[in-house]
Amino acid sequence: MSTLHFAESLRELVGGVDVVLSDIWGVVHNGLESFPEACEALHTYRSRGGTVILITNAPRPADSVQRQLRKLGVADETYDAIVSSGDLTRLYVAEHPGRKMFWLGPERDNSIYRGLDATTAPLEEADYIVCTGLYDDETETAEDYRGMMLKARERKLTLVCANPDIVVERGDRLIYCAGAIAELYRELGGEVIFYGKPHRPIYERAMMLAGERQGHMIDRKKVLAIGDSVRTDLTGAREFGIDCLFVTRGIHAEEFEGLDQLDPKSVMELFGHPPKALMRELKW
Where exactly are the transmembrane stretches of this chain (predicted)? Predict the structure, then answer.
């Protein structure tokens, strides 16, 4: 299939869908403000018996993500549960007691090891790296960390990436995320473990929580993913075997100008395999 289906509303797509796995940043908010129509769409779907699990590459535990959502005006009733790449990273840290961690990321992400028996250490003494982002994502790029990553590679340290996103929206700008550093490290020959989309563990955790709320195992044919990234949301959904609604207002907005006029070859170059449907912004 190389044609694109443009949907006007979520209601067109959720007949027979028991579970929605929705991205957060770029779909529900842009880092500075929430999108009221998107929140209303998810709430309405829930009110009609559907289950909404928010899946995010945020390098923080779910409770920290929830606090941020509340500050941005996203009501708890918008969703049933949150699964974050930060949660999965915390499991890795918990499963490696006694090993020294070099934490690379901004101070706001320190909840990644809150409550864990984790010993932090300088790069020269660490047993592995946990990367939650850049120290200053307002001014830095991954290239600013090339020297550090070369030293890490020399020590053959494993880098655990708590956010596979390369970039994310903040207001009307794109800022670099942990995924940019992780990809640089991988290019340099370093070993990287990714938690979050498009990798399976975050989907498996989300499906488990959805099953608990529905009271039965979830058929993947009755699941719809929603996201705004080809690399993480669309690829992750396709590889996990679920349909995807692609929101074009997010990080790929400029690429999608005139999208309705693309020829099949251009569609394949942009998406690989097109999503189930596209929508500029999520609404009911």
Answer: none
Q: Does the predicted model carry a pTM greater than 0.70?
A: yes
What pLDDT does residue 265 have?
Answer: 65
Could you give the 3-state DSSP secondary structure of residue 30?
Answer: coil
**Stated length of the chain:** 284
Up-side HSE of residue 4: CA atoms within 13 Å toward CB? 25
* CA dihedral of 212, 88, 169, 283, whole degrees rounded to 10: -10
**Token code pair at residue 226:** 């929603």
- pLDDT number for residue 67: 95
According to the model, what pLDDT value does residue 256 have? Answer: 60
CB 101 within 8 A of CB 126: yes
| C-beta separation of 68 from 100 below 8 A | no
Q: What value does the CA radius of gyration of the chain take, rounded to a whole number of Å?
A: 19
Closest C-alpha among 71, 7, 75 to residue 42: 75
Q: Who's near 76: CB < 8 A, 6+ residues apart?
A: 66, 70
Confidence at residue 172, expressed as pLDDT on a 0 to 100 scale: 73
Closest CA to 186 of 167, 155, 159, 166: 159
Contact criterion met (CB below 8 Å) for 198 and 228: no
Any alpha helices (H) in 172-250, and if so which ranges? 178-187, 200-214, 235-240
Dihedral sign from CA coordinates of 28, 271, 167, 244: positive
Residue 59 tokens, joined: 């390098």
Mark the ranges of the chain whose per-residue pLDDT is less than 70: 1-3, 169, 250-269
**H-assigned helices in 9-129:** 36-47, 62-71, 85-94
Distances (CA, A) of 284 to 23, 97, 201, 227: 16, 46, 29, 15
- Predicted confidence at residue 268, as pLDDT, reads 66
The structure tokens listed for 242 are: 């679920």
